[in-house]
Amino acid sequence: MSSTNFVASSELEQTINELVTLTGSSSETELLQRAIALMKVAAEAQQKGQKILIADQDRNPQYELQIF
Questions:
Q1: Is the pLDDT assigned to residue 58 strictly greater than 80?
Q2: Which DSSP string corresponds to 22-65?
Q3: Residue 24: which of 34, 38, 9 has the closest Cα?
Q4: DSSP 3-state assignment of 67?
């Protein structure tokens, strides 16, 4: 397995730490792996012309995400 390093601003570092807690990830690495997997699914769906929506509890669309 290879290793990748990057420099994160203090704001990004804080967001990453918050997301580790919110998602129950065991580490920053696990969080980034999950985020990349989610981004791949979203990008592939958008390339196919599909929409990515966030809906409320009654399945009413609230937001449409645009990846690129």
A1: yes
A2: HHT-SSHHHHHHHHHHHHHHHHHHHHTT--EEEE-TT--EEEEE
A3: 34
A4: coil
45 is written with which tokens? 């769906």
Query: pLDDT tens-digit profile of 29-40?
Result: 999 999 999 999
Helix (H) / strand (E) element for 6: namely none
Q: Which positions ≥6 away from 25 have C-beta within 8 Å?
A: 19, 31, 34
Is residue 57 left, alpha or beta, with left meaning phi > 0 and alpha meaning psi from -120 to 50? alpha
Mean pLDDT in the chain?
93
Report the DSSP beta bridge partners of residue 63: 54
